[in-house]
Structures are given as C-alpha cells and as structure tokens.
Amino acid sequence: MGDLLAGLTEAFRMIVTLDAELIEITLRSLRVTLTALAISCLVGLPLGGWLAVRRFRLRRAVIATMNALIGLPPVVVGLVVYLFLSRSGPLGVLGLLFTPTAMIVAQIIIITPLVASIAYQAMRDLWSDYHDLLISMNATRGQRIVTLLIDARRALLTAALAGFGRAIGEVGAIMIVGGNIDGATRVLTTAIALETGRGDFALALGLGIILIALALIVSWGSHWAMRTERQGTW
Question: GO annotations under biological process (predicted)?
Fold first, then answer.
C-alpha cells in the first residue's frame, strides 16, 4: 500500500511539474494516434457513405467483412505489418519498421473498419429518409454521399471518437511494429508496460492517469455528441 501511495504521489508531481519524459511520450502518442485517425476518417467516412447509397452484387459481403474486421486481433495486424515492412518483406526497402510511420499504418488498419462501420450504420438510416428527395433532385452519387456526411456529422463525430479511443489504448500491434524505442517510438501504452516491468511505478502511474484522462475525454465527447443529436441541436 505504501508503494502505491508513494507512486501516486510521485506520478501527480510529475504531471503537475510537466515532467519532460512524460510530456514527450504523451505528445508522441497523440501525434501517432491523431494522424492515424485523420487518415482513417478520410477513408472510412466516405466508404460508409458509399456503401449506404450504392447497390451492387457483393455489397452484403463487403459490409459483413468490414464488420468482421472490427474484431481483428491487433497483434495479428502488427504481425502482418511487420512482415511487410521487415527487410525481407515487399516494403522493407522503405525502412519504415520501428518508426512512428509503421505505428500509424498499424493503427489505420485497426480503426478504419470501426470508423467505416459506424458511419455506414448512421448514413444507412439517413439514406432511407433522403432517398426519394435526392433521387427526385437528380443528385449524383457524390452529391448524395456529401449530403449524408453533412447531415450525419454528429454520428460521424462519434465514429471518430470511437476510433480515437481504440487507437490510443492499443499496445499489441504498436509494440510489434514500433519496438518501444526510447525517444523514437515509445508511446503511452508501451511505456506503461515497460515501466511496470522495471518497477518504476511513478512514471507508469503518471502515464496511466494521462491515458485514463484521454479515455474519459473521448467518452464525454461521444456522450455530448449523442446527446446533441437526440436534442436535434449542434
């Protein structure tokens, strides 16, 4: 119990005094996660809208596959990315393994299906309401998708927040492709695992508090978005 209290005290001291290592790891985590989230939204949100308005033979199979990929084990994603980026892999010449770029690639693969699935669910319901109106206006497929994206913005914000929450807490794939290198690829989750193994509970608890705070911010943001959607206000 004494070790826990001492660790918590030191952890809060590090947070209040803006410990350099703590801030460095946190900023790197945010940079990697937000970059991956931005790319995932650029791909996943239009994909969800396209699936909502487009009808083709394998549509159900594509949607089922996309939903199944939400549960894709992160360590498997890490392994596949590692094999592609390793020296003997097809992309090994790029030298991206054990870099933040490799971590971003892994996170994109993990969270894009989640973002696309939530976006599809939201815009599918809207499409049933807008279908006759947009068809009567002779809107192109692109215009239909843009209209759904604009009107479903609150639900799409929830999709983005869910993707952020999934990415910021990821450790398996990040550890495999990033290597947890000090000053280069060490992020919140991998640093917590490392410092706990070392017995440096102060830094581990400090990082853990920050990670929990980020998760709470995401949860509150998602709750706010859904609440404003129910109230019909922005």
Answer: transmembrane transport
Distance CA 182, CA 203 (A): 14
User: Residue 23 is part of which domain span?
Assistant: 2-226
pLDDT 10s digits, 96-115: 999 999 999 999 999 999 99
Angle of helix 188-198 versus helix 20-53 axis, rounded to 10: 140
pTM of the model: 0.86
Cα–Cα distance measured from residue 183 to residue 25, given in angstroms and rounded to the nearest whole number:
8
Residues of the chain with pLDDT under 70: 1-4, 7, 222, 225-234
Task: Kindly list the distances between the CA atom of residue 180 and the CA atoms of 117, 171, 192, in Å, as whole numbers in the listed order.
Answer: 30, 10, 11
Contact 69, 80 (CB under 8 A): no
Structure tokens at 10: 């030191």
Nearest to 46 by CA among 178, 148, 191: 148
Quickly count: other Cβ atoms within 10 Å of residue 10's Cβ: 17
CATH (domain of 192): 1.10.3720.10
Q: Where are the alpha helices (DSSP H) in the chain?
A: 2-16, 20-53, 59-69, 74-85, 100-136, 141-151, 153-168, 172-178, 188-198, 201-231
